[in-house]
Design goal:
mainly alpha; globular
């Protein structure tokens, strides 16, 4: 496995800074009418995070030869949806978490009702900024980006995955829950938004169908690999490094890859998915270095 280079870390850091700037611009663009709601949205959106999904938008655009300046709004939109999902996932009715990115979760910092509304506003705001993209994006491009984000975040994507996850809690792994069930759950819950991040990066330009096919294969592989690594870290990580409660999935009796495959089996699964992702990238003509290094990062990260 390729080690994570200093140049990649610098590139990821640069992308994170670019994303932060884009998110601040997005919040200003929304013209939020209530100051307490604005505070909760800002807190949830700008309290750190790896910004993997915005990086995927940017790195895919680079691989497709698309001008880097065209990706900022798409980067912000995907992260707004991701942040909304974290706010709602942390609620007492969902995962009931107190920590997110090393800080109190939104409903702890503010209150439960405000957290729900902040998540709602971040979700709807993502579509507003896509609709208001500059004139050099055609109406067809804007519509395609909105469609992709809707599909990835809604009832055929992330929301469906969360519903499957909640319905799976407490069921016996290996009997009621098998590998196909877990992969279906995470292909929706985690994988859908990662796949859409890649496709949104491509659709900041004019992608051909063959490139989309290979990018989708790459994204599907790293989407599952991301969740496998999360499951491993829930066992091997520590709360301070993770920025959330270590062992939370075990405490909730959630179905995870280590619960089904064992820890060693889960690590082997992550390696297999990593190789599938790299194999898909070899079919692309552009410079895929950043996408390759991100695949490495996903299964070697410690938080």
């Amino acid at each position: 496995m390729t080690s994570i280079s200093t140049s990649f870390k610098d590139q990821l850091s640069s992308s994170q800074q670019r994303c932060e700037s884009g998110l601040k611009s997005a919040l200003n663009h929304l013209n939020i009418s209530d100051s307490y709601l604005a505070d909760a949205m800002t807190y949830s959106l700008l309290n750190g995070g790896k910004r993997v999904r915005p990086f995927l938008v940017q790195a895919t655009a680079q691989a497709m030869g698309i001008d880097d300046g065209r990706v900022d709004i798409a980067m912000a939109a995907i992260e707004m949806v991701h942040s909304y999902s974290l706010v709602h996932d942390d609620l007492p009715a969902m995962d009931d978490d107190d920590l997110r990115r090393g800080q109190p979760t939104c409903h702890i910092k503010f209150n439960e009702a405000t957290a729900i509304l902040a998540g709602d506003a971040l979700l709807t705001g993502a579509f507003e900024i896509l609709a208001d993209m500059p004139a050099d994006f055609s109406m067809a491009q804007r519509l395609q980006l909105i469609r992709l984000l809707s599909q990835g975040s809604g009832a055929s994507g992330m929301v469906a995955g969360q519903a499957i996850d909640l319905a799976s809690v407490g069921k016996e792994v290996g009997k009621e829950i098998d590998l196909a069930h877990i992969e279906r759950m995470h292909a929706h819950k985690t994988g859908a938004l990662i796949r859409i991040s890649v496709l949104m990066g491509a659709y900041c330009g004019d992608p051909d169908s063959e490139s989309l096919q290979h990018l989708t294969a790459y994204a599907n592989a790293i989407g599952l690999a991301f969740q496998v690594q999360d499951d491993i870290l829930d066992i091997e990580g520590d709360t301070a490094t993770l920025g959330k409660q270590q062992g939370a999935d075990i405490a909730l009796n959630k179905p995870t890859y280590p619960a089904l495959l064992g820890l060693a089996g889960a690590k082997e699964k992550a390696k297999q998915l990593h190789q599938l992702a790299l194999s898909a990238l070899t079919q692309l003509a552009g410079d895929t270095t950043a996408l390759e290094q991100l695949a490495d990062y996903i299964i070697t990260r410690d938080h």
